[in-house]
C-alpha cells in the first residue's frame, strides 16, 4: 500500500506539466476520450454581490404614481424571479469556464488466477493520471454562449421591469378613474337626495302631483345603487394595484396624477423588444459556434507508473487517443443550431416591424386622447355644469319640470363620466407609449 501511494504521487507529479486543458480517465495506454463527469476544478468562483431582499412591511397610507412605481420595483415577485434568472445565467458563465478534472486511476492485473498467476505473486499494478486536451476551443465556445445567454437574461429583466411599470401605470390610472367615479356617484347621490326632498315639499304644497315625488325617490334609489357599485369598483381597483406589489391588502388611497411620461418620437431599434431580439440572435449564433466546437477532435493523453510485483520493476506508461468521427459528427445539433439562428433572424425582423407600428400607433393614440380630454374640459363639462345650475334654479322656482331637471342631471353625469374615461384613455395610452420608450 505504501508503494501504491508513492506511485500515485509520482504519476501525478510526472503528469502535472502535461495537463493544459480538461481531464480524462482511462487506461494509460488507451485513455478514454469523451465528456467525463466533471466537477469544478478551476479558480474560485467570483463573489456575486448579494441582491437586496424584496421590500416588506405595509404600504404608505396614500400612494402617488412615483411612489407606486418605486414600491412595485422593490416588492414585485416578478422582478425577484427575473433577477434570479440573471443570477443563474451568471453562474452558468462561471461553470462554462471551468476546466474538467483530471482522473486518477488504479489498475491491478494478474492476481487470483491459476498457475503462475495464483495469489498476488504476479500482480501488476498501474497508477495513472489522464487528461483530455481542449484543443478544439470547446471551453471558450461554452463561455461565449453562456455570456450571450446572460445578455438575453439581462434584457429580459429590463423588460420585466418595463412591463411591471406599464402595469402599475395602467392600474394606477384605473384606480384614479375609479376614485373619480366614486366621487361623482357620491355627488349624484347627494343631489338626488336633495331633489327628492324638494319634490316632497312641492308635492305637499300642491305644486306637483304625487307622481313627481315617486319619480324623485326612484332616481335617489338608482343613485344610491350606482354609488355602491362605484365603491366596489374603487376597492377592486386598489386591490388590483396592491397585487402588483405582491401585497394582499388593498392600497389605502391613491393621489396625484396618472401621467408621468412625456410623448416623444421613438427609435424602434433602441426599444427593449428589438434589443432582446438582437441579443437572442447573437445567442443563437454563439450556439452554432458551440456546436461546431463540439465536433472537433480533442485528443486524450495519459501517463502513469506500472509496478511488477514479481520482479519489483517499475516503469512508466503513456498513451494518446483520438476519437474517430465515423458516425456521430454532431451533425444534428449543428443543423438545429443553424435553424435556431435563422429563426432568431426572422423574429428580429418581425419584432422590428411590430415595434415600429406600435410606436406610431401609441403616439397617435396619445395625441387623440389629449385632444378629447381638452375638448371635454374646455366646453362639454363646463356647459353641462352651467346647464345643471340653471335647471336646479328653474325647478325650485317652478319654471322647469322634474323630468327636465333629471334629464339635465343625467347629461351632466354623462359629461363628467366621459371626461373621466377620456383621462383614463390618455393615461393608458401614455403608459403604452412609456413601455415602448423604455430602454
UniProtKB/TrEMBL annotation:
Alphabetized UniProt keyword annotations: Coiled coil, Signal
Signal sequence segment: 1-23
Gene3D superfamilies on file: Outer membrane efflux proteins (OEP)
Molecular functions (GO terms): efflux transmembrane transporter activity
Stretches the record annotates as Disordered: 27-60
InterPro entries registered for this protein in UniProt: MdtP/NodT-like, OMP_efflux
Compositionally biased spans, kind Pro residues: 41-57
Coiled-coil regions, chain positions: 352-379
Stored PANTHER family: BLR4935 PROTEIN (PTHR30203:SF24), OUTER MEMBRANE CATION EFFLUX PROTEIN (PTHR30203)
Family: Belongs to the outer membrane factor (OMF) (TC 1.B.17) family.
Record's protein name: TolC family protein
Organism: Sphingomonas rhizophila
